[in-house]
Specification:
233 residues, 10 helices, four-stranded antiparallel β-sheet, Rossmann fold, six-stranded mixed β-sheet, alpha/beta
Length: 233
């Protein structure tokens, strides 16, 4: 479904992503793990069209999307939940969801909102509440729901556990698994390697902009170097 090949991304003179290649197959959960600053978010922004690679190609569903503008990438079925949630704080929960539907036929928006509420019942309880007054966990649910409004084939999640209490982290990861079980392919960027590798099929380890290791999630959990660096021993 997604094939990233030999991308190199720069911020000015800083070489942030170096010769990165990886794949995500239809129906998988694939995770990118690594320390803060390893290049994980930069890779997602490049796939989404926010940043451009100097080399290589990003292919989604058989089409090179490397030069396509972000909103047209969303139309093709690829959506991103940004780091830090980025909800529209002054707008209600329902209005935030409606903003995520802009690439879809307006006549189907009400039905889609209801489908999102079925995935995230807490959002239905808060539908008229201003998004900025929600808890961190609720805002993460809202950001995921807003992205799902575009009916993505592939959903990219950038640090969904950031700033959340452990119990809420577990709930968010259960929801990610539920979305995957419903047919959505997932590309997950996470510093919480333990949680990410518990739900992923495969994983890639990033260090200073390079992929240094790739394997099944189970093999990565059992890898001594990964355990010492990311899993607490």
């Amino acid at each position: 479904m997604l094939d990233v090949k030999d991308i190199n991304v720069y911020y000015g003179n800083i070489h942030a992503v170096k010769d990165v290649s990886f794949k995500v197959a239809d129906g998988e959960i694939v995770t990118l793990i690594g320390a803060n600053g390893a290049g994980k978010s930069t890779i997602l922004k490049t796939i989404s069209g926010i940043l451009r690679s100097k080399t290589g190609a990003v292919t989604f569903a058989g089409e090179n999307i490397g030069q396509i503008v972000p909103h047209n990438i969303v139309k093709r079925g690829l959506a991103q939940v940004p780091e830090g949630r980025r909800v529209f704080a002054q707008m209600s929960v329902q209005e935030n969801l409606e903003m995520g539907h802009y690439t879809q036929p307006g006549s189907k928006m009400g039905k889609r909102v209801q489908q999102i509420f079925e995935h995230f019942p807490r959002l239905q309880e808060r539908r008229k509440q201003a998004a900025g007054t929600l808890s961190g966990g609720e805002q993460q649910m809202l950001a995921m729901g807003r992205a799902m409004m575009s009916r993505p084939k592939l959903l990219m999640l950038d640090e969904p556990s950031m700033g959340l209490a452990p119990l809420l982290v577990e709930q968010i990861f259960e929801m990610i698994q539920s979305l995957n079980n419903a047919g959505v392919t997932i590309l997950l960027v996470e510093q919480n390697a333990h949680m990410a590798l518990n739900i992923a099929d495969r994983g890639y380890v990033l260090e200073t902009g390079r992929i240094v290791l790739e394997d099944s999630a189970q093999a990565l959990r059992e890898n001594d170097a990964v355990r010492k660096a990311y899993l607490g021993g």
